[in-house]
Amino acid sequence: MKHQPFTSVHQSLSFSRRMMLFGGAQAAVGAALVGRLGWLAVAENEKYELMSENNRVQIIVVPPRRGWMIDRYGKPIAINRSDFRVDLIPQQLDDAEQTLKTLSQLLELDADELDRILKDLKQSHGFQPVQVAESVPYEKYAAVIVRLPDLPGVQATRGFSRFYPTGPAVAHLTGYVGTPTAEDYEKTKDPLFLTPGFKIGKQGLEKTLEPYLRGTPGGQRIEVTARGKLVKELDPKPDRSGQTVQLTVDVGLQEYAARRMGDQSGALVALDLETGDMLALVSMPAYDPNSFSRGIGRTEWRMLSEDDHIPLLNKVAQGLYPSGSTIKPAMALAFLKQGIDPKRRVYCPGGYQIGNRYFRCDAAHGSMDMHSAIERSCNTYFWATGLITDPQETTDMVNYLGYGEEFDLPLATQRYGTMPNPEWLEQKYHREWQGYDTANTSIGQGYVLINPMQLAVLPGRIGSGKLLQPRLLMGAARKPIPPLAIDTEHLAFVRAAMTSVVNDGGTAVASKLPLENILMAGKTGTAQVHRLSERGHQNNWALRDHALFIAFAPADKPRYAIGCIIEHGGFGASAAAPVVRDSMTYLFDKQKAWDALLPLEKQWGGTLQERNDRQLAAFKAAARANAA
Amino acid sequence: MISSAIIPQPLAKLPWRLLFLIAGIATIGLLTLYSAAGGSLTPWALKQSVIFLFFLVTAIGMSWIKESTIKSVAFPLYAVVLAMLIAVELLGFVGKGAQRWLDVGPIRLQPSEFMKPAIVLVLARFYDLLPPSDIRRWRAVWPAALLLGVPALLILVQPDLGTAMMVILIGATVMFVAGLPWWLFAGTFAAVAVAAPVAFSLMHEYQRKRVLIFLNPESDPLGAGYHITQSKIAIGSAGLFGKGYLQGSQSHLDYLPEGHTDFVFSTMVEEWGFAGGLVLIVAFAFVIRWGMRVSTRCRTRFGQLTAAGLTAAIFFYVSINLMMVMGLAPVVGVPLPLVSYGGSAVMTVMLCIGLLMSLERQQRTQPRSY
After folding, report:
1. Is 90 exceeded by the pLDDT of residue B290?
2. Which site in A74, A354, A433, A628 is 20 to 30 Å from A559, CA atoms measured?
3. Cβ contact B237–A45 (<8 Å)
4. Residue B96's pLDDT is what?
5. Does A34 touch chain B (CB under 8 A)?
6. pLDDT given at position A329
7. A67 secondary structure, DSSP code
8. Nearest CA-CA distance, residue B98 and chain A, Å
9. How far is residue A237's CA from residue A392's CA, in Å, rounded to a whole number?
10. Which residues on chain A are in Cβ contact (under 8 Å) with B228?
11. Burial of residue A187, with CB atoms counted within 10 A of its CB: 0-12 exposed, 13-18 middle, 19 or more buried
């Protein structure tokens, strides 16, 4: 071996040292790798195992059956019907036009339906199924099934669709269901939203009670590859139907009242005075919620949105009207509380001068005390007495009885109107309260705006003497109802006056209950829509006054209260009171009530359903004629 | 080594313990490839076993090469590989596309793979020729830097970041154990640490995105982070003993991309669990330890540096791949040698092992004498 210089020995030492270092670094890296492996595979195992399962297992979602809505007696309001359905998967469509042509022949789709399908196809995301037809009869379903091999992208399945047995009568109460929109899906990213046949609540209770009604989807669990190829089927996961929700509504009364309203536009609310249960919430005219749940056709939609009676508006929840004279019982209680002697008399010469304005009464009533002023609805009395009382205290009493109050109800939108007082006026219009404000308020005009639900709560509270809160869900907790903080003598006085309105010489004597031993107490109201000087009968429907009526019965031992508004119905006594009378009769004697309604319906040209169907057919014919 | 009267001398002289280790690792690889193909010898396991056996025989054959022969071919071999790298670059330029290989008849040669052992040999030879007293001088640095820098740059522009990185790391290791001053490595490291943020700010948007995705793959689970995320799921869902052979859902349902090449370790661990991964890592650790021992026992400087560099090549191959599949390093396309499907990694590693065996044989056959 050759001679090694000193530096070479040094170099050899350096090499050994550095090899040790390199070996150490290797060991460190090795330890880090093993540590990392242990961290991933053992410490974090649970998390990654879940992710791996999520990769491996996919679910073909089966929509859950929607929960029912039933009435207080268990009668169905919204249920599910088993049906056959046909859908399109846009992504898998080869020739959309040809497929649609074949389908429209097989299923006899009309132009309206084809329009809707084309619109939905355009808006669809590719993977989101588009409904072709629901509730397909078995023969047509079978006809599609046999041709499925030639129709890629077409899906024929069995499913469930929502059904409202009473149709338009409950339309505004229940609302309707519909296919979730793309935005709904974007919000939740829930694959259930893309499943054909799955519907969510779009309006009314269907929307607000959605969490209870929806249920939990089940599905076929499958193992799929990353490219979506099916490998094998695993055990299915069962679905759980939505909960049944029981409403306080008496669907019999609801339907009766809806039909009793005829072709008029209005709202009626009925309350049980023992509990505050809402027995009916009728808003008419109404659409057929079954049409919406099926996917409404364009023509029908146009008919509904063009109707001047606004069938698409829930007047119970969102309607606002001047209260008119229905405010007077509350006014009387306010006056009594402020120490006005009910025997105090006011002379009505047919009007009243306030400042430089002359307010005209309906008639020259002569000498009026509080009882007769309620009974005959004399404005002069209320103007004159309003002016000698405190407007703030008066409004407080009316508010306390329900006007202007927002109730705790599962409604998507609830408008509660206005009960004006000096403070409110200052804030809203920056002006001082004037005598004519008092005058307007004391007969329920001016700034006064109330909602049909308040129209039932006010007679309800006066009738029961309790601070009643309306309820809509049977399952909701019952709270003890406190008595009204009002002198019982005052209440008895006003109840007696309201009894006279219907039973003695009052404004609504034509609407006595056709029952023995049961008297109804009430108060009429006529709310001006146009100008005071043009009150009364008008040929132009939209300019006519609103007719209102509030009532409770039996007068001596109040059990039910009803509030009703008929839009542009003219005088409250002639349009609203008879509807309330018959609905109230229904609560005590169903047979008598039907006996009263059936001849009327014959006169109007059939039941509500028949008239609605005829109207739609006529509209469609007109639309076709226009198009041709 | 095994000594027995029955076994002929040349066979008995082979480093059998190492060969068993290598064959064991390759067997794990073949089993995994069989599983990755859905329980089939085709298309990967059978082909891979042929490749492995071919290079195993080649490596054993190489163990008879003399150190002096290796020494003499160091520079010519380096020159040939460098010429091939330039040729690939020119071909890519002519063909207007990135290219990493040369078509030589039926075989595709990847010159960058040959560069891994070639850089070791040429640097070892360079420091062998350098007088020991010059090691702290400037002339110990710049020729080596040039020898390393030129091919690294050529590979980098192919572009093949993974291989370029490995060549640089292997070369740097040889320079480190050769005894270059400390401050050189510390300084380079500091410079890189300072330059990284600057480089990041100068990067293109897509390059920045790649770096960010490496740092947080979950931020883009369906895009470029998909590989890392799915690989981590495969390894993480394995548990202590795995899902069972042929039962890996991530690999069998195609959620794990490249489950037979770069991400073969994830495929293996998914089925064999932490225990299986540990066995493989320990097996590689023993191979590397063997290489390190060969290096320290070498009597010549060239042998020492060559063995250290070749061992470093195996070490970087394994560790970069494992860091990559476990989310500790960006995905740079470095396969796991002897386990991943494909010939080039097997070839490189078996060339390294063949050379190491040759150095080891000479330690045993020649008496130690200083």
Report:
1. yes
2. A74
3. yes
4. 54
5. yes
6. 94
7. P
8. 29
9. 63
10. none
11. exposed
Q: How far is B284 from chain A (nearest CA, A)?
A: 10
Contacts of A402 by beta carbon, 8 Å cutoff, 6+ apart: A454, A457, A458, A460, A461
Give the 3-state secondary structure of residue A266: strand
Please give, rounded to a whole number of angstroms, the shortest distance from the CA of B285 to a CA of chain A. 8
Q: Are B237 and A38 in contact (CB < 8 Å)?
A: no
CA distance B87 to B109: 12
Chain A residues lying within 8 Å of B178, measured CB to CB: 15
Q: How far is A185 from chain B (nearest CA, A)?
A: 20
User: Which residues, in sequence order, are CB contacts of A500 under 8 Å at separation 6+?
Assistant: A371, A374, A375, A506
Q: Residue A539 has what pLDDT?
A: 61
Structure tokens that stand for B339 in this block: 């386990």
- Confidence at A398, pLDDT banded by 50, 70, 90: very high
Contact B255 A224 (CB under 8 A): no
Percentage of residues in chain A with pLDDT exceeding 90?
A: 42
Residue A533 has pLDDT above 50, yes or no: no
Which residues of chain A does B323 touch, with a Cβ-Cβ cutoff of 8 Å?
33, 36
Among A271-275, A541-545, B19-23, B188-192, which stretch is predicted with the lowest mean pLDDT? A541-545
C-alpha distances in angstroms, B243 versus A77, A138, A466, A600, B236? 53, 48, 69, 77, 11
Q: How far is CA A464 from CA A239, A356, A458, A560, in A?
A: 46, 42, 10, 9
Of A8, A33, A223, the CB nearest to B132: A8
Centre a 10 Å sphere on the Cβ of residue A274 and count the other Cβ atoms it contains: 13
Amino acid letter, B315: F
Query: Can you tell me the distance from the alpha carbon of A404 to that of B302, in angstroms, rounded to the nearest whole number?
Result: 100
CB atoms within 10 A of CB B342: 17
Closest residue, chain A, to B131 (C-alpha): A8
Say if the Cβ atoms of A41 and B326 lie within 8 Å. no
What ipTM score was computed for the predicted complex, to two decimals?
0.92
Looking at residue A358, its pLDDT comes to 87
SS3 A276: coil
Whether B235 sits inside 8 A of A40 (CB atoms) is yes
Is the pLDDT confidence value at A41 over 90?
A: yes
CB contact under 8 A, A14 and B179: yes
> What amino acid is encoded at A26 in this protein?
Q
| Closest-CA residue of chain B to A19 | B177
In angstroms, rounded to a whole number, what is the distance separating the alpha carbons of residues A542 and A105? 45
A189 has a chain B CB within 8 A of its CB: no
pTM greater than 0.95: no
Q: Is residue A11 less than 8 Å (CB to CB) from chain B?
A: yes
Taking the CA of residue B40 and the nearest CA in chain A, the distance in Å comes to: 17
| Cβ within 8 Å, pair A7-B132 | yes
Which residue matches tokens 């049906």? Answer: A83
Q: Determine which of A55, A56, A232 to mutate to test the interface with B (most B C-beta atoms within 10 Å).
A: A55
Q: Tell me how long chain B is.
A: 370
The residue among B133, B135, B237 with the most chain A CBs within 10 A of its CB, best to mutate, is B237
One-letter amino acid for residue B49 of the chain: S
Cα-trace Rg, chain B: 21
The amino acid that residue A212 corresponds to is: Y
What is the spatial distance between Cα A115 and Cα A109, in angstroms, rounded to a whole number?
10
Cβ atoms A55, B250 nearer than 8 A: yes
| Cβ partners under 8 Å of residue A446, min gap 6 | A322, A420, A436, A437, A440
pLDDT per position as a tens digit, B256-286:
888 888 899 999 999 999 999 999 999 999 9
pLDDT tens string A137-194: 888 888 888 888 888 888 888 778 889 998 889 989 998 888 888 788 888 777 788 7
Nearest CA in chain A to B254: A226
